[in-house]
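Quick one, tokens below. Sequence please?
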């Protein structure tokens, strides 16, 4: 009997690269970029330190891989909410929670985007992928420039709410949460 691709059972064990990215994500979430080293990433993944360099040239390269995984995770989360018809308030909470879960990583990302050309380029590529997906989803009804302006506002508001910046000023978060919901609605509907 010939097996089809659907009949073949695949090993669900993550690859070495995936294990390294998962370990790096945990390290960056806990310690940030500056507080993480490649030896600790390799050991956390269950490998000898030299294994790291078989898969990644340096800590910046794996940081960018973690950023890509974060982007995929966020897209999956938001897509699932959209498919089930979640209320905007639920989507707002999910966006804030996702940023909060990666708060130290996000701080490193913001800093490195200013200091490291590779990270800055990776962040620009990520944003362009998001813009393209949104424009496709909206059948090209909005310009890339418009989507970029909204995405940057969404990103900054999500980070600010996750970090508690508005509360630090003794202000009410409700207007920021409403604005986040309005921006998400605009992305979805154009209104």
């Amino acid at each position: 009997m010939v097996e089809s691709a659907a009949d073949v059972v695949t090993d669900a064990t993550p690859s070495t690269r995936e294990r390294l990215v998962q370990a790096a994500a945990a390290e960056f979430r806990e310690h940030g970029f500056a507080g993480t080293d490649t030896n600790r990433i390799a050991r956390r993944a269950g490998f000898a330190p030299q294994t790291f360099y078989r898969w990644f040239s340096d800590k910046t390269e794996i940081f960018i891989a973690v950023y890509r995984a974060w982007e995929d995770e966020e897209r999956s989360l938001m897509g699932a909410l959209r498919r089930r018809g979640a209320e905007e308030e639920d989507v707002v909470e999910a966006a804030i929670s996702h940023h909060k879960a990666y708060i130290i990583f996000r701080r490193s990302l913001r800093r490195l985007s200013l200091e490291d050309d590779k990270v800055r380029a990776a962040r620009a590529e990520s944003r362009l992928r998001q813009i393209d997906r949104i424009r496709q989803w909206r059948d090209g009804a909005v310009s890339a420039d418009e989507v970029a302006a909204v995405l940057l506002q969404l990103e900054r508001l999500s980070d600010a709410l996750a970090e508690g910046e508005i509360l630090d000023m003794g202000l009410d978060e409700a207007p920021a949460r409403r604005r986040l919901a309005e921006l998400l609605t605009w992305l979805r509907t154009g209104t």
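Residues 110 and 188 are 26 Å apart (CA to CA). The longest helix spans residues 59-83.
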